[in-house]
Design goal:
six-stranded parallel sheet; about 0% helix
């Protein structure tokens, strides 16, 4: 995969991008009625979402089964709704007003929060 994930509906699976990925608008993850459906996003470079973007979970999809593995940094945009576990190699900056249904974890750097709501879904 490459470019921007906004406007897409993705079924469970492993998605790989060697370069950066963006999210503008809504990314829909459709479990098709399977509560055990899993999505793994392997992203080589930064993951950045635009202001007011969101990850929408439908048809039984759960945030605990969404993994974002980022080879550098992740930055959810202001007032976004994000779902899943973000595992960033370097750092994560969660901009103001972001709601995360999941976790944000950085290996080599810091996680910076700014007026956020983080809910662990399990």
């Amino acid at each position: 995969m490459s470019g921007d994930l906004g406007g897409l509906t993705l079924l469970p699976g492993v998605y790989n991008a060697t370069s950066s990925i963006g999210l503008t608008g809504t990314l829909t993850l459709d479990a098709q009625g399977d509560r055990n459906a899993v999505w793994v996003f392997q992203i080589g470079s930064p993951l950045t979402t635009a202001t007011a973007s969101n990850v929408l979970l439908v048809n039984g999809a759960t945030a605990r089964n969404v993994i974002w593995q980022v080879g550098s940094s992740a930055t959810p945009g202001t007032d976004s709704d994000f779902a899943g576990r973000v595992l960033a190699q370097i750092s994560i900056t969660v901009n103001a007003g972001v709601t995360v249904n999941g976790q944000v974890l950085a290996i080599d750097g810091s996680v910076t929060l700014d007026t956020n709501t983080i809910t662990r879904p399990w």
